[in-house]
Amino acid sequence: MEKVYVTYNEVHKLCQASADRILNDFRPNLMIAIGGGGYVPARILRSFLKRPSAPNIPIQAIGLSLYEQLPSSNPSNHIETPGTKVTRTQWLDLSSLEMANLVGKNILIVDEVDDTRTTLKYAVKELQKDVQTAAEKLGSDEKTRFSVFVLHNKDKTKKGHLPQDMMDDGRYLAARTVSDVWICYPWEATDIDEHDQLAATQAKY
């Protein structure tokens, strides 16, 4: 599979280009970053979503694992492939005030790439369920709205599907849609200079 190298500068600019749409249409009160790829975009986005005299938008984190590493005779050429089962590696504390604080909010879920959509489907579905449980405990009928932002959407048939009302309302935004390539993000690099050199010499994707 063709590899595409994305630099920190490109990530920064993709977030910047998407910020007005997110701020005006999604109006998030809170972001939930899916680790580990969603951490950096969420933090960059927060700077662009900051409004004068308003506090920074809080960022919470969840960890989900879908990719699995396949063995290779050359460790430097290991291959990762999408798995079939989503595993929670980190989640919100359902017994604390964290969940109560989500009720009635506009929540932006941030990840780096929408590949098979399996991870995003799981995140949205489980967060909706947990927030509904929290709302019932509080006796609240406030509506919680979820939106999704990714840096890259791969133009391919998806295994997972997001709620139809989310798609109909335009609460899904990909900064860029690309072909089904293997995207190498800078936070995955062990040699950032080599990564940036590869990005500089590759054809535009």
Strand and helix layout:
Layout: E1 3-5, H1 8-26, E2 30-35, H2 39-49, E3 59-70, E4 79-90, H3 97-100, E5 106-114, H4 118-138, E6 145-154, H5 164-168, E7 172-178, E8 182-184, H6 192-201
Parallel strand pairs: 1-8, 2-3, 2-5, 5-6, 6-7
Antiparallel strand pairs: 3-4
Helix pairs in contact: 1-2
What does this structure look like?
Helix content is 34%, strand content 30%. The chain has a 6-stranded mixed beta sheet with strand order 4-3-2-5-6-7, with helices on both faces. Strands 1-8 form a two-stranded parallel sheet. It has 205 residues and is an alpha/beta fold. The chain contains 6 helices and 8 strands. The longest helix has 21 residues.
Q: What key attributes describe this structure?
A:
single chain; 205 residues; alpha/beta; 6-stranded mixed sheet; two-stranded parallel sheet; 6 helices; 34% helix; 30% strand
Quick rundown:
The protein has 205 residues and is of the alpha/beta class. It has helices at residues 8-26, 39-49, 97-100, 118-138, 164-168, 192-201, and strands spanning 3-5, 30-35, 59-70, 79-90, 106-114, 145-154, 172-178, 182-184.
